[in-house]
From TrEMBL, chain A:
Keyword DNA-binding on entry: no
Record key words, sorted: ATP synthesis, Cell membrane, CF(0), Hydrogen ion transport, Ion transport, Membrane, Transmembrane, Transmembrane helix, Transport
Annotated protein name in UniProt: ATP synthase subunit a
Organism: Candidatus Uhrbacteria bacterium CG_4_9_14_3_um_filter_41_35
Membrane-related topology note: Multi-pass membrane protein
GO cellular component, one term: plasma membrane
InterPro entries to which the protein is assigned, alphabetical: ATP_syn_F0_a_bact/chloroplast, ATP_synth_F0_asu, F0_ATP_A_sf
GO MF annotation, one: proton-transporting ATP synthase activity, rotational mechanism
UniProt-annotated location(s): Cell membrane; Membrane
PANTHER family to which the protein is assigned, alphabetical: ATP SYNTHASE SUBUNIT A, CHLOROPLASTIC (PTHR42823)
Coiled coil keyword on record: no
Automatic annotation (TrEMBL), chain B:
Protein name listed in UniProt: ATP synthase subunit c
UniProt organism field: Candidatus Uhrbacteria bacterium CG_4_9_14_3_um_filter_41_35
PANTHER family, alphabetized: ATP SYNTHASE LIPID-BINDING PROTEIN, MITOCHONDRIAL (PTHR10031), ATPASE PROTEIN 9 (PTHR10031:SF0)
Keywords associated with the record: ATP synthesis, Cell membrane, CF(0), Hydrogen ion transport, Ion transport, Lipid-binding, Membrane, Transmembrane, Transmembrane helix, Transport
Residue stretches making up the V-ATPase proteolipid subunit C-like domain: 9-72
Keyword Transport: yes
């Protein structure tokens, strides 16, 4: 049985920067996507090749989701490159274990590659990126309106009657809850992806090492389950990050022109 | 009890208790989605992706307890 560790193993270090096996896995995924995208985009034609159809479907799907979330074609177009990168990277990264023999490559006794999303640091980095981008976008639209969601001091100053004052105090407290909620979003977004991927890996590994005869046909349904989970989680991460950015932008636009408010999760 | 025994017990309890809520919730989501499809089968294509997203969100508490169980087992 392979050793199960939560932190990624350090393979070597470039100066002060340690390079882990999950980093190398992510690098491999990036290279793979780059090569496939380069091959696909070299010759576009009216009569599409198979690979072009796949990319066109993916592009249309992402664009549709973005337009539904933002309700604005221009903004959807601006966000498009980031989200298609996110979706492509996560899909390929979560299905990396379908590439045969890739996890058998060893370097000085350690595995050279590891499923990138089964390292907590990668998922936290992705979730933090979404968090920072959502706040920067909201602050760019209207700093005052955005901060009003978190520090609701305005109704407190406007209150004249005791009942209004009570309502304003409740709003003020809800503002604090929103601050906690923002950090909870980062944790839940990253822990969801990490937990699913890592659990899938551990489950397959446990089944394989159960007995000598469970090594061949028995793990197949579990491998299918973990791959399905990886695909669904890639999609869920993508959809939820769109929702977070759309929510932040929605909260910052002045009430007169803001769309129907989504309920704050 | 020994520390090792407590650790194993804690991980098992954490995962087992944490899976109760999401189990109920996911069943509810799936059941309601099927109900909606039964009422209007032509809208199936729109309901299924929403159902999967809702299920994945419902699952998240189970995933938290899973992460904690894994931390108890492999890190502590």
């Amino acid at each position: 049985m392979k050793e199960i560790t939560i932190p990624a193993k350090i393979i070597f270090s470039l100066g002060p920067v340690p390079i882990t096996d999950a980093n190398l896995g992510a690098l491999l995924v990036t290279l793979g996507i780059f090569i496939v995208a380069f091959m696909a985009s070299r010759k576009f034609s009216i009569i599409p090749t198979r690979i072009q159809i796949v990319f066109e479907m993916l592009t249309e799907y992402v664009m549709e989701q973005l337009e539904n979330a933002f309700g604005d074609k221009e903004r959807a177009r601006n966000f498009f490159p980031m989200f298609i990168t996110l979706l492509l990277f996560l899909i390929v990264a979560n299905e990396l274990s379908l590439v045969p023999l890739i996890f058998q490559i060893t370097y000085q006794g350690d595995d050279l590659f590891r499923l990138p999303a089964s390292d907590f640091s990668l998922t936290v980095a992705l979730a933090l990126t979404i968090f920072v981008i959502s706040h920067i976008m909201a602050l760019k639209i209207s700093p005052i309106n955005h901060l009003k969601n978190f520090i609701a001091i305005e109704p407190l100053l406007k209150a004249r009657k005791p009942m209004e004052f009570f309502q304003a105090t409740v709003d003020f407290m809800i503002g604090f809850l929103n601050i906690i909620g923002e950090f909870a979003k980062v944790i839940s977004l990253s822990a969801r992806l990490f937990g699913n991927l890592f659990a899938g890996e551990v489950m397959v590994m446990v089944i394989i090492s159960l007995a000598s005869f469970t090594r061949f046909i028995v793990p197949i349904p579990f491998i299918v389950l973990s791959q399905m989970g990886g695909l669904v989680q890639a999609l869920v991460f993508f959809l939820l990050s769109i929702q977070f950015i759309a929510l932040a932008i929605d909260g910052a636009t002045p009430p007169a022109e803001s769309k129907e408010q989504l309920s704050h999760s | 009890m020994e520390l090792e025994a407590v650790r194993l017990l804690a991980a098992g309890l954490c995962m087992g208790l944490g899976a109760i809520g999401p189990g109920i919730g996911e069943g509810y989501v799936g059941g309601k989605a099927l109900e909606a499809i039964g009422r209007n089968p032509s809208i199936q294509g729109k309901i299924i992706p929403n159902m999967i997203v809702a299920m994945a969100i419902t699952e998240s508490t189970a995933i938290y307890s899973l992460v904690i169980a894994l931390i108890i087992l492999f890190v502590m």
